[in-house]
Amino acid sequence: MGHGGNVIDELVTDHREVEELFGKIEALPPGHKDRKVYADQAVIELVRHSVAEEAYLYPAVREHVPGGDALADRELEDHATAEQTMKDLEGCDADDAEFDRLIGSLMSEIREHVADEERNLFPKLRAACSTEELDRLGEKVRQAKKTAPTRPHPAAPDKPPANKLLAPGTGMVDRLRDALSGRGKHD
Description:
Elements: H1 7-27, H2 33-64, H3 68-90, H4 97-128, H5 131-147, H6 162-181
Helix pairs in contact: 1-2, 1-4, 1-5, 2-3, 2-4, 2-5, 3-4
């Protein structure tokens, strides 16, 4: 799928890509090794997406949307729950009994989060921000995803400025680990 445009279009494209990976996982029988490959790919995308949202989307929601602090706090709680599930999933192979439980839980958490963002948060942000502001945020989110971590780090800060300072270094280490291990690559 193509990326570009405003922040909402960018994040909805991410949502669809992750849902496509979830569909690939669900289409394979339990224990199939490719379930882990697709789960790793989904985690990589979800972590990059979450880091970018935490750095730019949620601060914009706090600034521009009435009641934005409460909305952003709820979204951050969703991220924390999903990130812990992703961290637990990281240690499981596809044939591990815990893998099916964790990937099912993650898919459920993410699908609820996505539906809530698309139904509630995005329309409020679109109504509160100018086209130029949404485009500017889209570019910032795209840039943040390029250097973002690819592995879950539940203890990492999720609010600016600390998250913006630490994410690029953590991301570099994660991408090096991924390259050395082949994580997220299909054979």
